[in-house]
Hints:
Blueprint: E1 2-11, E2 23-34, E3 37-43, H1 44-47, E4 57-67, E5 69-75, H2 89-102, H3 107-123, E6 126-132, H4 137-149, E7 153-157, E8 159-160, H5 173-187, E9 194-199, H6 207-219, E10 224-229, H7 233-242, H8 249-255, E11 263-267, H9 273-282, E12 285-288, H10 290-295, H11 303-308, E13 312-315, H12 327-340, H13 347-354, H14 356-361, E14 379-382, H15 388-394, H16 400-410, E15 416-421, E16 424-428
Parallel strand pairs: 1-4, 5-6, 6-7, 7-9, 8-9, 9-10, 10-11, 11-12, 12-13
Antiparallel strand pairs: 1-2, 2-3, 4-14, 14-15, 15-16
The protein binds guanine (GUN) and zinc ion.
Amino acid sequence: MQAFRASILDFIDDPASAPEHCLRYFEDGLLLIDQGLVSACGDYASLKSTLAEDVEIVDYSGRLIMPGFIDAHLHYAQTDIIASHGSQLLDWLERYTFPEERRFSDAAHAQQTAGFFIQELLRNGTTTALVFATVHTQSVDAIFAAAAEQNMRLISGKVMMDRHAPDFLCDTAQSSYDDSLALIQKWHHHQRLLYAVTPRFAPTSSPEQLSMAQLLLNQFPDLYLQSHVAEHPGEVEWVKSLFPWSRSYLDVYDHFGLLGDRSLYAHCIHLDDADRQRLAVSGTAVAFCPSSNLFLGSGLFDMQAMLQQPVNITIGTDVGAGTSFSLLKTLNDGYKVCQLGGYNLSPLQAFYLLTLGAARALYLDRKLGNFELGKEADFVVLDLHSTPLMRRRMAHAQDLADQLFVLMLLGDERNIAATYIMGNCCYRADAAPC
Ligand code: GUN
Ligand code: ZN
């Protein structure tokens, strides 16, 4: 049994649909964990008497505990090309991304990068992520092994790409199927890991390969699927010429049976209402990646139109086109993108999207996303006063929502005091032993 005393916040519903009953906040709270799972969460005053005398209380008074953040879209193999000065999407892929991903044929390089990447997630309070590996099977082994070492719930998969890319990054429809199948058998449900079938995007997959992706999903009904859609106008035009029969870019994936529960598409910018309706009806999730979209000049995600359907929304850093591993900094960009689109993103909605909202969109909410009894105890300890400016601004924060707004506009990895995976401390900012 473990006990943590702090202010505690989690979401129990969507602020957009249940504004009055969406969260629990205990200013002086206690979080109890038994064998990695939440056993209680409530007021310190009422829970402390239930504790056996020998249970040591870890005192984080003055800090805020929240469920661990969920990064729904990023590329571990692009860690070393973050902040590379390029042009827009297609040029950036050719100039930086493809040459960099080539290096992941080397298992030692993949392992070294994966280890750094997992540490960087933890340093930023991210406890679950949907991660693109590369086309190489050894890159998938590396990221899953590094996540397993921390017992993280991480979703990843081998990139499938059999055309319109350099030869050194191309597989074939058949080899992508065979390799993915072997990796599914090796990693899906190993510890907390889950596998995502990962066609890179429609331009780099032949129709045969997209059919193979569908075959895998049909064979293993609880697999994930991750890809990109409608990120950049040049990419959308390209897809139109490659799949002239399609009604839209999203329709290409729909045609191959790749929408549905546990499918997640990054970007989703250049869509129409019919596309958004298909996303909603099919249960498909979208990843809003504002840092990346601003960096590559891709366009403005229409949050309001997505919420109207409603579509299942998550947030992704999209490293390395995104320029930070911090989901707090990503919310900062997201807030401003929404402002430009005429939608005012509330801080409650924003932190819901990083936690329970993402867990629901990924159909993981029975396992994690808040501190309900029995859930996996992944959490982050936040220091809301990590810089002189934040201390000054927080001193006159009016309420919890105001504090959270300051956190998402001024926050970054300096606010992450510690990160816990199933009750185990995996990162501490003060470098004290966990
Ligand atoms: N579309 C296809 N591949 C990629 C990628 O690696 N990054 C981004 N941002 N978009 C993509
Ligand atoms: Zn991406």
